[in-house]
Amino acid sequence: MVQWTAFAAITGVVLVLLLVLSHLTQSSFADADTDTGDGEHDGAGTGAGTTTTTTDTVTTDSTAYSPSADTATSTDVPTEPDQDRPVSVTETDTEDSDRPHDTARSPSRAQRDEIDPTDLSTGMLLANVAISQGLFLLLILGAILYTGIPAWALGIEFSVDYLTTGLLIGTVAGILLYIGNEFGAALATRFGFDHDERLRSMLAPDSARGWLVLLLVVLPIIAIFEELLFRAALIGVLSAGFDISPWLLAVFSSIAFALGHGMQGTVGIIVTGALGLVLAALFIVTGSFLVVVVAHYLINALEFVVHEAIGLEWSESLVGTESASTPSSTSAASDSDLEE
Predict the structure, then answer these.
(1) pTM of structure
(2) 92, pLDDT greater than 60
(3) Structural domain boundaries, residue 77
(4) What gap in Å lies between CA 314 and CA 182, rounded to an integer?
(5) Can you list the pairs that 321-329 forms with residues at least 24 positions away whose Cβ atoms lie under 8 Å?
(6) Where is composition skewed (Polar residues) in this entry (predicted)?
(7) Domain end residue (candidates: 85, 109, 133)
(8) Same domain, 201 and 299
(9) Under a CB-based contact definition with an 8 Å cutoff, are residues 283 and 292 in contact?
């Protein structure tokens, strides 16, 4: 007997864990961005500590040579120092300057430095992504076997026609969605909304072997896991087991899919959410898990190859992102000439 409720519960746990992991990754990058600001605050704190120490030293010396030091109470104002032994401010400052000051950073700052993702090598980042996504994938696959979810509910068939049709439709859909995704991000940049691609740049390999690992291992794992979770499980299984409209589930899964890519910023969340909705519609219409996996893989692979390997920003040129910035620069130069 199929255990639909148990599978839904396990899927919910995996989804929550994935979103928490995404939030922690985003927070790590945000903490790394504030390191420079923290360094400036540390310097200011050291200066304040030095001033306080010097003041305390002068006060102590003044009290030590007061004629009435033995009879003064805690509320008495210290009297003038003994005229026979004047206090040398220069001597006091020199002694104070010889004292070591505590310039150690706070524990929170040290902890942030230890988990700074920008300090990790590309190989370590790729391994981290592959292992984390792979573990989630194994957890979902284990839940499928344990609860007895049928293959048809996941959009999976075992036939030659399913394989050929899925590869063909998935390839065409992947290329078209890649083009649409590029235009969406470029238009957002055109209107002043930046699309954060730091994570993609950090994952870009610098060797042929690294590219093979990325294209043949890491990206397939990502595509299979995310489509299995966001499309096959959250749409296919839940609609089959609980008689819920797949289109309603498509909206929910697309929102979750977008939130899982919060590292890309606001524009990235919007573009990814729209992409997730299209992939969900493609899954519902075709009923094929293979179609969305192939499409998802091609979108990611083309982005890496075009932007990171070739370095081509063709979509921004087509929508006029570069030309739009040129008049602003020219106008600024003209204003400077007029002021001169």
Answers:
(1) 0.71
(2) no
(3) 35-109
(4) 9
(5) 321/186, 321/189, 321/190, 324/190
(6) 65-77
(7) 109
(8) yes
(9) yes
